[in-house]
Amino acid sequence: MIKNFFREDLKDFKPYDAEKNEYRIRMDANESYLHFPDELKEKLLEAVKDFALNRYPDPTASDVCRAYADYAKVDFNSLMAGNGSDELIQITSNAFINDGDKVMILSPDFSMYNIYIKLAGGIPIVFDLDEDFKLNAEELIDNVNREEVKLLFISNPNNPTGGVISRETIIKIIEGCNCIVVIDEAYYEFYGKTVIDLIDKYENLIVLRTCSKAMGLAALRVGFLASNKILLNELRKAKPPYNLNAVTQTIAEVVLRETEIINSNIKAILEEREFLLQGLKEIENIKIYPTNSNFVTIKVNDAEKVNKKFLEEGIKVRSFKAGRLKNCLRITVGSRAENEEFLKVLRRV
């Protein structure tokens, strides 16, 4: 039987299910609701109109890395570009994990960490946040060192809670853990605090970033990894040679140079987040978790019932049915009209 050739350790493995269904209002995937102005669209068309589609792309994505280095105020030589930060999580896992190696992840946290760890042959060790999704850093450090884990993944701000760990606490974790520490700053722009400036100070630090959220380039799939030369040398061993296509590199470089548009979009999203939060605070029987991201996570009495009503209205939010997030809904910040429509339906429910 063909199943005899399958990996035994993946027998009960469930692939990540990214829905493709169309909805009237999409507030489930933490994308930007904003579109680029026509002038920028013209620049993008001009940049790609004479493209040499018969040639392989720059394997190091040097031009777009230089653009991101200027944007993020880091050394160009400290960066690696990836096909979304998801690929950079996979590259990190493949570069450092041997079969049976332990890797620490938080619960709740970004679900793709668990998937890539298992695909690399690693063993995920879960450390639970408390009931309010806060982290006990001392206990985490003790667990990391006692379990002798090789990697620690932390998203900051956290996805899916929106909560954050202070810079001081992150530094304490980096210094206290005898492992490689990966800080995933996918939602950095909505928080404003980072440890990317410490990548050369700490030999065990990797920082991840993405252009899918604040920059509005989710369709392109482009992310960046920042670290020191020693770790980057190992990471390059696991990176495919042409992992970021030429069209993506070109478009992303143009957009990254448009800092005024990026900053204006971030400001608009933060204003809409505040509007959404104020509206949620006026509704009874829900718990709102503090957020420093472009989404808000709430807890209701019966998330399945509430989500069913949203789907009937053509509104898609992220609904959690089990585990630490049971009865929670994660709502991506939308436009003013989308936020108003969401709040109107939630009030009725």
Low-confidence residue ranges: none
Based on Cα principal axes, name the global outline. Answer: globular
In DSSP terms, counting alpha (H) and pi (I) runs of 4 or more, how many helices? 11
- Portion in beta strands: 15-25%
Which structural class do the helices and strands define? alpha/beta
CATH superfamily of the largest domain: Type I PLP-dependent aspartate aminotransferase-like (Major domain)
Along the chain, the helix and strand elements come as EHHEHEHEHEHEEEHHHEEHEEH
CATH architecture of the largest domain: 3-Layer(aba) Sandwich
Q: State mean pLDDT (0 to 100 scale).
A: 93
CATH class value of the largest domain: Alpha Beta
In angstroms, what is the radius of gyration?
Answer: 21 Å
Tally of DSSP β-strands = 12
Roughly how much helix do the residues carry, as a percent range? 25-40%
Strand order of the largest sheet: 2-8-7-6-5-3-4
Q: Could you describe the largest sheet, including whether it forms a barrel?
A: 7 strands, mixed
Termini distance? 51 Å
CATH topology of the largest domain: Aspartate Aminotransferase, domain 2
**What's the structural domain tally?**
2
